[in-house]
Write a structure and sequence with these properties.
Length: 120
């Protein structure tokens, strides 16, 4: 089966023959798919006259965004001292507060229950 690469025509029967034209530092790509070894060209879905492109291998993994700006927001935010909180109730008083919150002051509502920290 004939195919073209860099304007030249070649003949191959399987993907291994196509990959033999490329070195280890690059991928062979057809229609956005990387060619894998060990297939016949028909099995791989390639038709007569397909065009092969060479794409260089990239070192490392994918990085989203520039690492030069990492930590930018935290560095810009002014430090605010924590406010003093009143002492939490313990023992009987804490249990009484829980009981009142869960069973006494209950407002019947429709839909899903909201958590104790929801602001709606």
């Amino acid at each position: 089966m004939h195919f073209s690469y860099q304007g030249k025509s070649f003949n191959a029967e399987n993907t291994d023959e196509v990959l033999s034209l490329f070195n280890e530092e690059s991928y062979a790509v057809v229609n956005g798919r990387v060619i894998q070894p060990g297939f016949s060209l028909e099995e791989y879905g390639l038709t007569e006259g397909f065009q092969v492109e060479e794409v260089p291998r990239m070192l490392g993994g994918k990085v989203h965004g520039s690492l030069a700006r990492a930590g930018k927001v935290k560095g810009q935010t002014p430090k605010v001292d924590a406010e003093e909180k009143k002492k939490a109730k313990t023992g009987r008083a804490k249990r009484r507060m829980q009981y009142n919150r869960r069973f006494v002051n209950v407002v019947p509502s429709f839909g899903k229950k909201k958590g104790p920290n929801s602001n709606s």
